[in-house]
Amino acid sequence: MSEIFHRLEAVKSRIAAAAEASGRDVSAVKLIAVSKTHPPESILEVIDAGHLLFGESKVQEARAKIPLLPAKARWHFIGHLQKNKIRQALPLFEMFHGIDSLELARDINRIAGESGARPQILIEVNVAGEASKFGFKPEILRSGFEELLALDRLQVEGLMTIPPIAEEAEASRNYFVTLRGLRDQLQTEYRVPLMELSMGMSTDYEVAITEGATMVRVGTAIFGDRPKKNAVDPFE
């Protein structure tokens, strides 16, 4: 068996252990194998191991790779979606994790209406208030949430966040708690089901699971290190 296969199995085991430790059923946690920058051959190894859910963050790269892989694979867009790439992205992805502004949501809704699409979306929340990251500030999301729900082509499934980079996984916990609390408040106030919490990556997904993550985005722990920036990237 390949290194990728063994790493995938190790991640699945750790997800199961984290779910069990927090009294949750492992079936409540979806693993998104983050395949950005990795070649189709590596993704095929994961598919052959029985895992079908992947995350990409660049539309151009996804357009090149997805047609080369089995149709049974499922794809989520996990990056910042540029407005000029919406039309290209809608046919490729079943869910968009990074809806980070009302303006972007309106544009996706309009284009989805023209194409007949009904994309599932997660609202990205910048819980740490980092200037370098996209996402709604919690107070802005609260004030604009009713308008988001009124966009008739979009299926709002939940929230997503990316906490600040930290050396210790435990440093992410408060951000995950904050996102879960915001989700709970919005569900209660607007009486809508927001079932998904996309939070946790290779360095902190176990902590995220103990705080209620329903989706974890794991790349390096499965595929290994990404190509260095000075290496030739066939998808750039």
CATH architecture: Alpha-Beta Barrel
Sheet having the most strands: 8 strands, parallel
Count of the domains: 1
Q: What gap, in angstroms, lies between the N and C termini?
A: 30 Å
Q: What is CATH's topology name?
A: TIM Barrel
> What is the count of helical runs?
9
CATH superfamily: Alanine racemase
- What's the alpha carbon Rg, rounded to whole Å? 17 Å
Strand order of the largest sheet: 7-6-5-4-3-2-1-8
Characterize the structure shown.
With 236 residues, the chain is of the alpha/beta class. It has a single domain, classed as TIM Barrel (Alpha-Beta Barrel). The chain contains 9 helices and 8 strands. The chain has an 8-stranded parallel beta sheet with strand order 7-6-5-4-3-2-1-8. The relative contact order is 0.16.
SSE inventory with pairings:
Elements: H1 3-21, E1 30-34, H2 40-48, E2 53-56, H3 59-65, E3 74-77, H4 86-89, E4 95-99, H5 102-115, E5 120-124, H6 138-150, E6 155-160, H7 173-190, E7 196-198, H8 205-210, E8 215-218, H9 220-223
Parallel strand pairs: 1-2, 1-8, 2-3, 3-4, 4-5, 5-6, 6-7
What are the key terms here?
eight-stranded parallel sheet, single chain, 236 residues, 40% helix, disordered C terminus, 8 strands, TIM Barrel, globular, alpha/beta
Give a quick summary of the entry.
Helices cover 40% and strands 15% of the residues. It has helices spanning 3-21, 40-48, 59-65, 86-89, 102-115, 138-150, 173-190, 205-210, 220-223, and strands at 30-34, 53-56, 74-77, 95-99, 120-124, 155-160, 196-198, 215-218.
